[in-house]
Amino acid sequence: MQPVISVSNLSKTYASGHQALKDVSLDIAPGEILALLGPNGAGKTTLISIICGIVNASAGSVTVGGHDIGKGYRVTRSMIGLVPQELTLGAFETVWNTLSFSRGLFGKKPDPAYLEQLLRDLSLWDKKDSVLMSLSGGMKRRVLIGKALSHEPTVLFLDEPTAGVDVELRKDMWALVERLRQSGVTIILTTHYIEEAEAIADRVGVINNGELLLLDDKQALMHKLGKRQLIIELETPVDKVPERLDDWRLEKLPDGRQLVYTYDPHIEDTGINGLLQAITETGLVVKDLQTTQSSLEDIFVSLVRADA
Amino acid sequence: MNTQAIRVIYKYEMLRAWETLLQSFVSPVLSTSLYFVVFGSAIGSRIQQVDGVPYGAFIVPGLIMLALLTHSITNASFGIFFPRFTGTIYEVLSAPISFIEILIGYVGAAATKSLIIGLIILVTAGFFVPLEIAHPVWMAGFLVLTCISFSLFGFIIGLWADNFEKLQLIPLLVITPLVFLGGSFYSVSMLPPAWQTVTLFNPVVYLISGFRWSFFEVSDVSVGLSLFMVLAFLAICLLVIGWMFKTGYRLKQ
Questions:
Q1: Closest-CA residue in chain A for B248?
Q2: What's the pTM value of the predicted model, to 2 decimals?
Q3: Which of A182, A271, B13, B175 is the most exposed place for a label (fewest CB within 10 A)?
Q4: Under CATH, which number does the domain A228-293 receive?
């Protein structure tokens, strides 16, 4: 399938000398949700800004829908909607006017019925005549999403859409993203919240220091990099791990009641049987057993730490 | 061409002026009326005719130019500076719209607003002094060209300024003195010879002179030279804006 967005060897060095992107390449398939994870200043927003036409690339190329973002900017930009990170809105316009403005800016003729439905979907219909400065932060965030969707884009960029919003609104946003995906919109979101990527993304990319460290299917990523841990709770605490168990490199938690065994769940012999047998031989009494899967957050942290 | 985009930029810029009606249109009319009361009636009645024109009528073209220049610059500079300041410029930059279309939208609206102000002042002047326009087509031409070229200049200032102080700097410290010293309230021929020469370095002299000629057929410099200067200023502004757009100056990093 032809990618809807193709980024090739993209680099960006700002006038200050800061290199925000270093030879980044990635393809994004139509209809997928891609989450870009990375710490502040990693280059996520620069990548989005170049694709949207707000920032000039220093090197490399980007196509959207098969069109170069430079030569074919009218086609590429009309396909894209952007929800910026900051609450960048005017103060005195009404919700309705600002959405109408956005739609017209992207060359679309007025369509009051579409805008009404959009505002209803965003629970903003009763605020259509309110001036922007009177809205709460969460409502402003929804207005920004409405503006980005006002021209019916097929690709939507959400730059940290849930930063600073409450849990309920975050869940609403996730539901909205899912609805958009079902309607065929390709979504690229940047986020600090690993749980967000874990909850809604199909693929995850990790950017740090301007480099794309990793880009993979979310499930495959967790399968490849996700370690599992067996937590063994003992009946009585121990001062140190018996030498007999050294082969399993157990970690003793501070209270001495729990031993943690980290293993790869994808190999045939995980070593669990042998471990449990060895524990019995040492005379330790097991009170409880528990397994945990490392989360995307653990993977992200380990990748970024390794890159630092 | 993305005519919808031009239309909405133009419409929303005009809407902004309409929503601030007092500030946009009533305020310049009031301040110009005060000029007529003070200079035209109170002081003007004691001043002899200038170049055969009653003083009250003589200052009309200068007063219109004063308003046109300052409002063209202010409207256009604020129009593009405000979205840069608030960050909403991202939307314009990410839209399928060329820089020429952005320019037409913002400068077109700014020029329209100042043109309306100019016409309102012209009508207001008619209540204070008897007015005859000898060359209405030339008058309209100078009016439109001045509105466009100084709106372009304002657009440049709006891109150049990175704070509100800079936004006000050129209109207050450069344009206003140039207009006042450019023959708005006097004929250049009334100055000593040395100052006449100095005054000719003031580009606003050519604007006011040409505009005044279209009313009364009296001018400090030839009307052809006035027209050339307006067109030259317009061309320079377009070249500077072209360079700004090409380099992404203060718009794109």
A1: A56
A2: 0.84
A3: A182
A4: 3.30.70.1560
